Amino acid sequence: MAEPEATARVGIVCGSRSDFPVMDKAVELLGRLEIPCELHAISAHRAPDLLLRFVAGAEGRGIRVFIAGAGGAAHLPGVVAAKTIQPVIGVPIPTQVAGGLDSLLSIVQMPKGIPVATVAVGGAENAALLAAEILALSDPPLRARLQAYRDAQTRSIEADESNADLLGER
Ligand code: RP5
């Protein structure tokens, strides 16, 4: 019998499958941290009813944090945030028109009352780490995995041969 799939704790949604190369970086990092997630492409303007259905059902499925990516007139993260009081992290997708500055301003400039925590253009890894930090507030084993990830990151920089002379100065 197949193992039941782990309950997703992070809901990742983006406006188009063309956003997947960026959003996959969040999926990959969440996987390294052993955080189950689900990924959907649901346009906020082409399929608004489906997007609202996704958000409405997410909490019941176990999702505690959303990561929402969109490009251009990137209203998707704000629409998700409007329909939930769970944290929403916005990922501005790079575009050909303004390099993603259009996406960034669309997502980061949420008017007061409905927050979207916005990361850098294309910053799906940081979105995953921020989601992990939120979940780790109530999950000590995850907190330990996050700390180990951070420590390994630091060690890899210290181990870079360009820094060999500095280590001896401690
Ligand atoms: C946005 O429009 C999507 O998030 C995507 O970044 C952009 C282009 O979408 P496609 O035309 O590639 O479907 O809604």
Architecture blueprint of SSEs:
Elements: E1 10-14, H1 20-32, E2 37-41, H2 48-61, E3 65-70, H3 76-82, E4 88-92, H4 101-108, E5 117-118, H5 124-136, H6 140-158, H7 164-167
Helix pairs in contact: 1-5, 5-6
The protein binds 5-O-phosphono-beta-D-ribofuranose.
Description:
By secondary structure, this protein is α/β, with parallel strands linked by helices. The protein folds into two domains: 129 residues, 3-Layer(aba) Sandwich (Rossmann fold), CATH 3.40.50.1970; 31 residues. The protein has seven helices and five strands, in the order E-H-E-H-E-H-E-H-E-H-H-H. Strands 2-1-3-4-5 form a five-stranded parallel β-sheet, sandwiched between helices. The longest helix is centred in the last third of the chain and has 19 residues. The protein is globular and about 60 Å long. The termini are far apart. The model has no long low-confidence stretch (mean pLDDT 95). The structure holds 5-O-phosphono-beta-D-ribofuranose. 5-O-phosphono-beta-D-ribofuranose binds next to loops.
Provide the descriptors you would attach to this structure in a database record.
alpha/beta, Rossmann fold, 2 domains, five-stranded parallel β-sheet, 7 helices, 14% strand, binds 5-O-phosphono-beta-D-ribofuranose
